[in-house]
Amino acid sequence: xxxxxxxxxxxxxxxxxxxxxxxxNSVNFNQRYHFITFFIWLLLVPIKILELTGLFYGIDYLKSxxxxxxxxxxxxxxxxxxxxGNAVSxxxxxxxxxxxxxKLGAKNTKKTHLGFVLFNTIHFSRKLNHEHNKNDMPWLxxxxxxxxxxxxxxxxxxxxxxxxxxxxxxxxxxxxxxSKIKNLHCLNLEQQAEVAKHYYLDLKNKGENSYIYTRFxxxxxxxxx
Length: 225
Prior knowledge:
By secondary structure, the chain is mainly alpha-helical. 57% of the residues lie in helices and 6% in strands. Strand 3 and strand 4 (121-124) form a beta hairpin. The radius of gyration is 17 Å and the shape is globular.
């Protein structure tokens, strides 16, 4: 049903040219940006039709069977629920640690380590160690946002997330800037994931500013990407 709804929304032409998504980064909008937006729209038409067949979920299932993955641990689920509540299907998420694809991505982008989401599988370039590395759980929170984005946006999430890295990147100006941002939809997909990560970090730090993040997290849970 979600795939059909996404296909119908894809042909909402007024949304194509007037969509507020990523409007926070409108300084990057130029003729080239709009041309690429239209090209991506065309590219996604056959992909969204394929989504109706369940093909991509089938590929994800086969990949999880044929490659070494693990489920989320009870600790990870407990921590993720502080951000996402029951909005995420935790049992459907697979973790692929020491992923060759993630290692190649890290090398290509010249990063020490890298994580990315492909369907319901989160790929990490190294093994997570929550006991000895306090950055690993926030990292997982960020990537779990991408799982939720994939659930609501479908395959187009992958293209939009890659594009976000070149159009606004990860930064949104921090907590002081959130009051100036109308809603979660105004941010690109990477910035949305960073909001979730920073909310989690704030909760771990007594949650003194959590009320500032609340409206964005509520929208995130509802899939208003």
